[in-house]
Amino acid sequence: MEVEGSSKKMIATQEEMAEARVPLAYRDQCAHLLIPLNKCRQAEYYLPWKCEGERHTYEKCEYELVMERMLKMQKIREEEAKLKQGLNQPAIPLIPKPANA
Tens digit of pLDDT for each residue in 54-69? Predict the structure, then answer.
């Protein structure tokens, strides 16, 4: 399943996420990593030094998604700035030059 505007694909299905009781806010392209992380957390009684590998993998995935969104927004802002500069500079000069200049 493709997500519009992202380079990552959705791996976990809606059914898998619902079965794993993943909150709606966390159902993104990294949800397939959150499901085993939450299972590990429950099995290990949420001890902070357990499940470090799963947590690191999930947080790295989330970081990459944030960075991808930031780069896209930066490109959009640069394009808008170019358009604004193009609108501020008139193509035809308002004061014509004299004929013998």
Answer: 999 999 999 999 999 9
